[in-house]
Amino acid sequence: MILDVQQLKVNARKKWRWENHPTQWKEGLPPTKKERQALAQTLSSQLNDWQEKLHAEGQRKVLVILQGMDTSGKDGTIRSVFQNVDPLGVRVEAFKSPTSTELARDYLWRVHQVVPKNGEMVIFNRSHYEDVLVTRVKGWIDEKEEVRRIRHINEFERMLSETGTEIIKIFLNISKETQRERLQQRLDIPEKNWKFALSDVEDRHLWSAFQNQYAQVVSKTATPYAPWYVIPADSKSGRDVMVLQILLAHLQAMNPQFPQVDRALWPQTID
């Protein structure tokens, strides 16, 4: 059972409509949660095989950008998608509120410090997109600055692409009801209390504003060299399979290979 990942890819030439981006999806996915979890295990092992080749080749790199509303499952996606990937081959960068050192520089400075090097796969848990999402919704920047930053981001990602970085941007799309249920779990389940923050409730009141801003930003930054995919993420197991198939499609297209070695200079046996 194979998902056509192109169905999830954002077409910047089409007018954005949220009704075209559902939060639930069944097509191309196994029917049961158990089957989806088993498939995710298999696909994660395949991802490890490709990452090993990427690392051995040492010529290109992969940047995965995860965005989504609070409780959309960014942490869980990382755990599940990379469950069978050698931890030495990947790096996760989580972007919190900028420090005083970061605020003293341009907003892309801290991002550029941690982009992947050759042979590396890096996952951004949130990213530079917060600087045109939260900042705009909260009124910290005006429309003129937003336009300027979107231009910066497109040019920044073009530079990364042209210097060998495969960029895959993923928006985890959940419904407002799913967010309510997950926030309620953080209140009700003691083991999840630590995840709850009052800011989550405050941002929930701005749901429509965030949705509108995401629509604007994603449509304006969906480019051939740095595509966006909108993942129906109400189902965690379905979400994981879809993200894995997208990553595998990109790595298969890159087709990294183990480097050829000159065995003529090698000994035949080791004493």
TrEMBL record:
<dbReference type="GO" id="GO:0016301">
    <property type="term" value="F:kinase activity"/>
</dbReference>
<dbReference type="InterPro" id="IPR022300">
    <property type="entry name" value="PPK2-rel_1"/>
</dbReference>
<comment type="similarity">
    <text>Belongs to the polyphosphate kinase 2 (PPK2) family. Class I subfamily.</text>
</comment>
<keyword id="KW-0808">Transferase</keyword>
<feature type="domain" description="Polyphosphate kinase-2-related">
    <location>
        <begin position="33"/>
        <end position="258"/>
    </location>
</feature>
<keyword id="KW-0418">Kinase</keyword>
<dbReference type="InterPro" id="IPR016898">
    <property type="entry name" value="Polyphosphate_phosphotransfera"/>
</dbReference>
<dbReference type="InterPro" id="IPR022488">
    <property type="entry name" value="PPK2-related"/>
</dbReference>
<protein>
    <submittedName>
        <fullName>Polyphosphate kinase 2 family protein</fullName>
    </submittedName>
</protein>
<dbReference type="Pfam" id="PF03976">
    <property type="entry name" value="PPK2"/>
</dbReference>
<dbReference type="InterPro" id="IPR027417">
    <property type="entry name" value="P-loop_NTPase"/>
</dbReference>
